[in-house]
């Protein structure tokens, strides 16, 4: 299979939120795994060089599942926003109600299971109280 056809096939799979296993693809296209990695890098460069990057899409490698996927704009904003919030609360030594801390813990478990350990480290550093906070 020609390189252009292989690139389009990989690109199409990625934009349809399919996970890319480089070993399986290498077998499918009868190429080396390094070739698949270079193809993915070429697609990544395309995102950076074109308007696709404005959408803040990036190809990430999931080490746990050993595959590539596109991390969409929405996922990146959620991740960044939650992490910024947690860092802000820790840095400012903000005391929050226990109920809010439990709500944050629930959000982390449900929405960000892959980043759970990182976020729980921040959460442990945030002070909480049983008292209701008022201004």
Could you please describe the fold and organization of this structure?
The chain has 135 residues and is mostly helical. 60% of the residues lie in helices and 12% in strands. Helix 1 (3-15) packs across helix 3 (33-49). The strands form 2 sheets. Strands 1-2 form a two-stranded antiparallel ribbon. A two-stranded parallel ribbon has the order 3-4.
CATH homologous superfamily of the largest domain? Winged helix-like DNA-binding domain superfamily/Winged helix DNA-binding domain
CATH arch. level architecture of the largest domain? Orthogonal Bundle
**Radius of gyration based on Cα positions:** 20 Å
Q: What is the count of β-strands?
A: 4
Query: What's the total helix number?
Result: 6
- The CATH topology of the largest domain is Arc Repressor Mutant, subunit A
As a percent range, the share of strand residues is: 5-15%
The number of domains is: 2
Assembly classification: single chain
| Shape field | elongated
Mean pLDDT: 81
Can you identify the CATH class of the largest domain?
Mainly Alpha
